[in-house]
Amino acid sequence: MHSFGEDRVSELQTLKLSEIAHIEMGQSPDSNYVTDNLALGIPFLQGNAEFGEIHPTPKYSCSQPQKLCKAHDILISVRAPVGEVNIADQEYCIGRGLAAIRFHSMPVKLAAKIIEFTEASLRKVAQGTTFEAISKYDLLNLEIEVHPENEKSFLNEIVDSIDTNIRQTEAIIAKLQQVKKGLLHDLLTRGIDDSGQLRPPQHLAPELYKETSQGHFPIDWEEIPLGQMAEIVSGVTVGGNGKGSLVSDVPYLRVANVQDGYLDLSEIKTIKVSQQERDRYLLQYGDVLMNEGGDFDKLGRGTVWENQIPICIHQNHVFRVRTDANKLRPFYLAYWSASTFGKRYFINSSKQTTNLASINSKQLHAYPIMVPPEHEQLAIEGRVASINQKIEIETAKKDKLKKQKSGLMNDLLTGKVRVTSLL
Fold first, then answer.
1. In this structure, what DSSP letter does residue 226 have?
2. For residues 239 and 152, what is the distance between their CA atoms, to the nearest angstrom?
3. Is 75 helix (H, G, I), strand (E, B) or coil?
4. In sequence order, what DSSP letters do the residues of 115-154 get, joined into one string?
5. How many other C-beta atoms are found inside a 10 Å radius of the C-beta of residue 165?
6. Alpha helices of 53-202 — where are they, by DSSP H?
């Protein structure tokens, strides 16, 4: 059983990392000994390899490794981005950009959290003009707050408990995302009948379906080109001269802001435009945003604008689709565009280059959509909104846990709050 207390803060020791751990700096091996055949050598990690995972994922192997880390070593990125942390699940050959830290006496997960906690300190000493990097000297002299031996195991349990809660919540979110994916497929192929239930599959009730160019769909659904149900507008040209007198800077959406099913508004840029251009490209609630180009899997991704920013326009590489809601509801259009049917059309119709693709306004006008009656579109939206709400609740829970973890780790690892054992 554990408790937090304010006593014995003075027992914390400030030690250099070199006094409590062995440090192995990575070194890239000769390229002649590196292969993508993982069976021909020791797994090779280069740079910031898969640091988002609990265990690293190697993409190459090395037959004559120069620098090795052992299982349970703490891997840290020493080149941009500096300070990201992982735990090695086995022996690896580590390349330049990675360092392996092996503590002499410290539970592994606790040690990893201590290193992760010191990222801010590492970034302060990072140097470089092209990219940030830290040297072995920086790591050797990194100062670490070390707890007494009798507290280390308790701290490790607390860290493990918090991480377990976060992982469990992430697993729930992942499961809900999979349920949503399957539900969307059923809703967009079977729809919802008058009793509020999914229609039976086509092979069980063929009389309820008709054959279309995109497969079998409910008999009262219509296949209609998007241009007959919506106004499609390309946005403002960045770097253009503009028309008329320029007004103050206006926020605008770029391709990077329009993700698959959501908006990334972490970085919003502004542009000077005329009053005429601002009025023409001003976004309204319910506008569906679709990207003109990008990676194959992101082409045409549809996201509904919900007035997240009071006054905002869009770039010319982002199409604004303003539907006639009596014919086609915007959220239904976004769901359809994210489906296999929408993605198949964009890929087959696009102009393709290496790893990139693009569509034009003409192709978007011709975009065929299977359209249910309005009341059925509403019912489909309701089902998706319900599962989206569950995902949002779990995501908020995860964010809260991470925030609590950050605060608690700050208190525990600095000694502001101490953990002791109660018998």
1. G
2. 57
3. strand
4. HHHTHHHHHHH-B-SSS-B--HHHHHT-EEEE--HHHHHH
5. 15
6. 108-117, 119-125, 136-140, 149-190
Predicted TM-score (pTM) of this structure: 0.69
- The pLDDT assigned to 216 comes to 95
What is the largest distance, in Å, between two alpha-carbon atoms of the chain?
79
Backbone angles phi, psi at 206, to 5 degrees: -60, -25
Provide DSSP, 284-331.
-TTPEEEESEESGGGTT-EEE---SSSS-EEBTTEEEEEE-TTT--HH
pLDDT in tens, 246-286: 667 899 999 888 887 788 898 999 998 888 889 999 999 99
**Neighbouring C-beta atoms of residue 364, cutoff 10 Å:** 22
Q: What percent of the chain has pLDDT over 70?
A: 83
Using CB atoms within 10 A of its CB, is residue 151 exposed (0-12), middle (13-18) or buried (19+)? Answer: buried
pLDDT the model gives residue 7 = 45
**Sheet containing 351-353: which strands, arranged edge to edge?**
293-294, 356-358, 351-353
Looking up tokens 């542009």, which residue turns up?
A: 271
**Which residues have CB under 8 Å from 25's CB, separation 6+?**
67, 78, 99, 136, 139
Rg (CA), the chain: 27
Q: SS3 for 11?
A: helix
Q: Which residues make Cβ contacts (< 8 Å) with residue 302, sequence separation at least 6?
A: 261, 288, 289, 290, 321, 333, 334, 336, 337, 338, 342
CA dist., res. 262 & res. 338, Å (int): 11
Residue 258 · residue 289 · CB < 8 Å: yes
Closest CA to 397 of 165, 221, 201: 165
Q: Coil, strand, or helix at residue 96?
A: coil
Higher-pLDDT residue of 191, 3: 191
In degrees rounded to 5, what are phi and psi of residue 160?
-65, -40
Decide if pLDDT at 25 tops 80. Answer: yes
What are residue 121's phi and psi, to 5 degrees?
-65, -40
Band of residue 49 on the pLDDT scale cut at 50, 70, 90: very low
User: Could you tell me if 149 and 20 are in contact, meaning their C-beta atoms sit under 8 angstroms apart?
Assistant: no
Quick check: 314 and 281 in contact, CB under 8 A?
yes
